[in-house]
Amino acid sequence: MKKKLIIANWKLNGNKLSILNFLNQLNKYDYKEKKEKCKIVMSFPVIYLYLAKTIIYKKNIFLGAQNVDLNLCGPFTGEISVNMLKDIGINYVILGHSERRKYHKENDALIAKKFKIVKEANLIPILCVGENKEEKKLGKTQEVCARQLNSVISMWGPQIFNDTIIAYEPIWAIGSGETATPCSVQKIHKFIKEYIKEYDIANSEKITVQYGGSVDENNVTQLLYEADIDGVLVGGASLNYNKFKKIIDIVNSL
Ligand code: PGA
Known about the structure:
alpha/beta; TIM Barrel
């Protein structure tokens, strides 16, 4: 069985002490001495990633950035490049999160360009897609996801999705306590996989599709029973070690 991927997105939260405490516990996590069935990606604010890298010794814990710039170096005040992330041992980069689309005006074209930069640097992009409440009401979920996938496919071709991650995150479910039903998530994940398969049959198996949006220890089991939900992207519930540990326990017990 392919290992489930659990991504923790800490957003603009945490400090040195809370991150060290969290990682010290996570390093010691041992699933009843049995084989663990998940891979974990911790996505702390970028300023703490190097510190985190020096602390982590457990083999199945990786680090991710929440954003990156398009440029590799030069006069771009305030930005971070893929080379810098690589330099400190980061493996994953979240791209196109709805909060970046909303508050930083990132559009599909910019996100598609970032996707390529990340892939070329041999980092793993996590592309967030998903509809807002209005679009959901209008039955446009598939259309919105297809448009977001297409912006990458039309620029770089479908093979760019090999060994990458797509996170389906309906905007209305993020931070709202309202999770999409496992059945509706399964349907859209299947759609996403089939959509890419249509363009690129050979490599469509290499795509991981995550679900994110108010995932916690109470709803993760039902979500992960679905065939095409390859893992979860956890925001709020990942800030509390005990809640997060429960999620890992559940994944390991599946
Ligand atoms: P949430 O956040 O789990 O707090 O809803 C998920 C996300 O934004 O990635």
